Amino acid sequence: MSMPAYTNEELMASVMARLLRGLRHVAVGALSPLPATAALLAGALDPSLRVTILGARAHQCFTDGGRELFDCAAQGRIDAFFLSGVQIDGNANINLVGLGDYAHPVRRFPGSFGSAYLYHLIPKVILFRQEHTPRIFVPKVDFISAAGTSPAHEYRPGGPRHLVTGRAEFAFAEGRFQLVSVHGDETVASVRAATGFDFLSPETVPMTSAPSAAELVALRGYARTQVQEIYPAFAAHAFGG
Amino acid sequence: MSMPAYTNEELMASVMARLLRGLRHVAVGALSPLPATAALLAGALDPSLRVTILGARAHQCFTDGGRELFDCAAQGRIDAFFLSGVQIDGNANINLVGLGDYAHPVRRFPGSFGSAYLYHLIPKVILFRQEHTPRIFVPKVDFISAAGTSPAHEYRPGGPRHLVTGRAEFAFAEGRFQLVSVHGDETVASVRAATGFDFLSPETVPMTSAPSAAELVALRGYARTQVQEIYPAFAAHAFGG
Amino acid sequence: MSTFFADIEAFVATIPDGAKLAIPPDYSGVALAATRALVRRNIRGLHLIAVPQAGLQADVLIGAGCVATLEAAGINLGEYGLAPRFTAAVLAGSIVMRDATCPAIHAGLQAAEKGIPFLPLRGILGSDLLRVRPDWRVIDNPFGINDPIVLIPAIRPDIALFHARVADRHGNVWVGVRRELMLMAHASAKTYVTVETVQTDNLLADPALAAGTIPALYIDAIQHAPGGMRPLGFEDETAHYASLANYASLAQTDAGFMDWLRTWLA
Amino acid sequence: MSTFFADIEAFVATIPDGAKLAIPPDYSGVALAATRALVRRNIRGLHLIAVPQAGLQADVLIGAGCVATLEAAGINLGEYGLAPRFTAAVLAGSIVMRDATCPAIHAGLQAAEKGIPFLPLRGILGSDLLRVRPDWRVIDNPFGINDPIVLIPAIRPDIALFHARVADRHGNVWVGVRRELMLMAHASAKTYVTVETVQTDNLLADPALAAGTIPALYIDAIQHAPGGMRPLGFEDETAHYASLANYASLAQTDAGFMDWLRTWLA
Known about the structure:
Largest sheet of chain A: 5 strands, mixed
Order of helices and strands of chain A: HEHEHEEEEEHEEEEEHHH
Radius of gyration of chain A: 17 Å
Largest interface: A-D, 48 and 53 residues
Number of domains of chain C: 2
Oligomer: heterotetramer
CATH superfamily of chain A: Glutaconate Coenzyme A-transferase
Radius of gyration of chain C: 19 Å
Number of helices of chain C: 10
Helix content of chain C: 25-40%
Number of helices of chain A: 7
Low-confidence stretches of chain C: none
């Protein structure tokens, strides 16, 4: 095993950026350094992609207050968004609220933010979580901040389409995750061992494509410079080279 | 009979202005020169009265677009407003739409504007119409743009409280108009003859108080100057002195 | 997202017959140069949505036979009285009038802006508007008891069309306190704007100007059209009133209107 | 309508115990000088409504025992992690948490702004938020068929409290693109604002500034408080992040928080 020429964050960002190809507009929530990196990378490679990063003045055009992101999503003007969770289950339900019983939690997290809404309205929601362990990827979340699936009759133009972790990339369709590729030395078996829920997979899957030279240039140039201004702590460790 | 020392418009404006005493905020719609005059007069005599005149830059503070007047009214921040009609009936229903059958009208007027809404939400709505004839004051309007009364269970913090015409002043309470005073040479009988609906009245009523010297000074000074900028045609004939 | 057009004919060419077109009132930014180009190219079957009331622009389009439906809380020529071609068309039954009340049009657009099917609105109960607008519903407020409330369905125009002071090269458009223009842009599938001037500096880079700017995200087409509100005045009330008075007197008859129109189109 | 106060103790004196207080997030205009005065006067039983999320301000008020209820879509210290006093209070059961989602708080305030009892909102279905927020209702969309939709009841705060760049002598307050502050002012019964500066020129007289101005009509109390966001930075991100980092490390324990608080109140 050789040292990879890129960090795990760079690999995740390049995978997430590829999922944005051909889109018109991606939005990134506050406190989302990895998605911001991915969106900036995608924007660097495709100038026709509009990148909105909440909390970053240079990458935000909204002029109608805090509600505009949500109205804009409901208008169908945002093609992709990123969500994460303190727990994510096999039905793509995400939990951002707490562990244990809601009334008497054993751990409490910040809250659901816009997830319960944006998950339903933005066509391509990309789930991400670098830590890929059974405590994150659980059979069933303790609290559903936002539901991964909905009955067919419910209005739901959006929903989860992909999951990118520190170990692998999944697609989500028809209510199930399917393993698409594994990063570096991971295998189907090692990913399965790290995942608390069942998922579809062939016996072997390809290795995730490494960041290309062009991607690494854009990552370590434009994207890093921009991310540094918003997330100095993250930028200090996430980029190689 | 001596020539009065004031115009009919000045008398109406002073009557309407007195109805605004003690209020915090009066709003005046677009295309309402007489109410604008009354509100400006009231504001000149009581600087604590906020006067909002739509369509007049100098007398309007709104910064949230066309909806703000209506939101502001619903928030309870507007105490009084003026409405008129091409027909007004004895239940204080007003018609701003047309004469005859709606589908095949014999005459068509501009439309209901904000009346259907503001009539219900602004506590003191003052109806006004200079022309006081049976074609205006009818037994029943051909089209109810805005209803004068509502069933008790309906949400209705606002409604008609007064009617000021070129001939008289009325109060409106418990679903009926009551004659309060007559202008100049009018009598209960002459007002009744000019009105197509029945109304309450004692046998004799007082004559409407003429504009005071102070009112005339404010009318012909401050109010006229301001109104001239918004309604030059009206200002050219409405003021005496 | 904004495309800059080189001439107003090309700018209006992509507005199709039958479009549901949102337009502001005469005192806001009315795109009259674009309206003239629409009449010239003989557009037909427009569904005009006045936000919330209409004036000269709608009356001219109605007189020129371009309009199938008008949705408005009111239409007139300001101090110059009734809109004569509208009145004639309604009496002749040649257009469909969808009477509304101002806040209902704002509410319908806000519903579209929020991507929700309807907005509740107080008042209106007891008005014959509810009779002639069966698309407005009355329900019992689920948070109250025996508390009827009107629901206004979302209004989603195909195109918002208006005139503004300035756009920048990035496609952002400044409208200042005329926030109803921003609401129209948010609520409409597309937004077409004519502007007095186009500047290089990014409007969003100036914190004061940014507060009154519609971002390019919502703007599809921009046409540089100085005097694009003529014959109405743009922040010039004398010219404004004079044109309305002139139109009001000529357009009382079909023949007088056609004379006015020929002159205007020439 | 605006009253100018001469000192911040008098300014906060009219904010009663138990008030339903709307506050903006840390990146908007947080009135921390006023918050310090509230803690000093030992205010109790606040119902905080975060628009739509909370940070340092709410955590400090919770740690100081001023808060009975927090209504928020989320609370944290930005990049510096969980809000420690909030977390401790929830685990101890000493505050009532009303979990929400960002657009629901905006929608509830918009309902109050429009004087309507509720606003419908898409999404949310299937979330446990509906279970823990029985005040949110689900109805079948009257304009659809078998189309469930969430209704969010109006949120009408007693007082909106925030910090802004500038007020004028007439009581108008400029917030620029921070329109959520304007929404808070429209929706709340009263609005209290601390400002960096007070100017003589009327903000509404300048067309550029007017577009980002809350008119005095909505403003009840103004306090000139330069640095009113300290220790957070007002358009000074370095100071901002440093204070959050410092607070985040100290407030992990009761004792550490009390040390921080003593220093801050001194």
